[in-house]
Amino acid sequence: MASHRVxxxxxxxxxxxxxxxxxxxxxxxxxxxxxxTTEAKxxxxxxRVEKVISLAKRGVPVQLVTDVRAKQYSGHFAxxxxxxxxxxxxxxxxxxxxxxxxxxxxxxxTRAWFKLGELKPAIVVxxxxxxxxxxxxxATLRGIPTVLHEQxxxxxxxxxxxxxxxxxxxxxxxxxxxxxxxxxxxxTRTGNPIRPNVVTAAATPYPTLDAAGxxxxxxxxxxxxxxxxxxxxxxxxxxLDPRLQMRLKIVQQAREEDLxxxxxxxxxxxxxxxxxxFFSDLPAKMAASHLIVSRSGASTVAxxxxxxxPSILVPLPHALDQDQKAxxxxxxxxxxxxxxxxxxFTPDRLAAEIAALGAEPDKLKNMAAAAKTVGAIDAADxxxxxxxxxxxxxxxxxxxxxxxxxxxxxxRPRRGPA
Length: 418
What we know:
It is built from 15 helices and 15 strands. It is of the alpha/beta class.
């Protein structure tokens, strides 16, 4: 049985390496405070679970390390063990707040250093956010191979700090590191892992559409985005030509407090509409849609691309890194989406966009096909492949994977009806 010593331990080719996975699962737990408005969290967790499943298929035992805030979500992961490491986020700029955060992160790095000495992982994989900093920093200090995954179209602050130090970088979208050649040299585009029900939905052809037939419109936006959708979309529909209104079949997510007014608005217009605070079968509803209006979080954009559906995207404003704007830009540049800043997202503007698209079925079909060129339905497998191969290459003295090697060929989308 061939074996190699990696990161201070013997690595068996037969049994495979042990991996420590580190993830910021805290994506604003306060923001997603209601059970029925946790769809963004559910998507994100499901994507991480797919990574773990892909590793398990390769015989790789996984250790999950996270902070105390995210431990409530740890039951979703098929990890061998779960470990809690202190972490903190920079929330204030005053010296006291900064000093406290630095102290907690320093404590986290120290504890992670000892924990890695105990676990002796072959590789450490991080998925962004401040809870990723202590374990990945500790791994680099111990000389353990590291992989950093960036799910957005622009790197977040924690990942920007870690990127120069890690062994390899995986990105969800093209162009993330175009202006940083040193980082691009060790980067591979894998895509963003998606849920199994999204993979199933991705096999659904674009629904039949003509200039006089039904036009299926899906509207959603998560717990924060749903309110602006409720404030704008019904009034935009009201401004449409009555003939177009009669063609519409709307499915819209709305907050509990907005349900009555949104339903009443569509009833008055005699527009067919299903309005609810949560849809458990959202990927299937996406696949059944001709046009989607939504926010542009990383998981949403990955799913729009995988399924291949045209969209009007309204990025969440005021984000420090403008990640949603960058995500929407990926689909916009591919020709699969229209991006509207929230300041431009008015009833008049939205009505004009829907009317123009509703009159051009071929344009919607072309946008669907363009969106699908950015999709990656096997992203979890690609990322797992990098994580599995890197320790073996390091053990053999081959170094990091050549830039783009693991993902470039696979990034050509699986062909099928648009």
